[in-house]
Amino acid sequence: MDTLILLLHGFEVALTPVNLMWAFVGSVLGTAIGILPGIGPALTIALLLPVTVSVGPVSAFIMFAGVLYGAMYGGSTTSILINTPGEAGSMMTALEGNKMARAGRGAAALATAAIGSFVAGTIATLLLTFSAPVVAELAFLFKPADYFALTVLAFTSIAVVMGASRVRGFVSLFIGLALGVVGIDAMTGQPRMTFGIPALLDGVALTVVLVSVFAVGEILYVASHYAPGRDDIIPIKGKAFMTRDDWRRSWKPWLRGTALGFPIGTIPGGGSEIPTMLSYTLEKKLSRHKDEFGKGAIEGVAGPEAANNAAAAGILVPLLTLGLPTSATAAILLAAFQNYGLQPGPFLFSSNPELVWGLIASLYIGNFMLLVLNLPLVGIWVKLLRIPRPQLYAGILVFAMMGIWGVSGSVFDLGLMAALGVLSYVMRAYGFPIPPLLIGMILVPLAENQLRTALAAGQGSLAVLVETPISITFLLLAFLFLFLPVLLKRLRKTA
Amino acid sequence: MSLLRKGPWWLGLAVIFMGAVCFYASTQLSATAQYAAIGPGMFVAVVGLGLMGLGVLLLIQIARGEVFEPEEAENAIPGQAMDKRAFFTALLGAIVPALTIETLGLPVAAMLAFMLVARAFGSRRVVADLVTGFVLATLCWFLFGFLGLQLGGFFPLAGV
Question: How many domains does chain B have?
Answer without folding.
Answer: 2
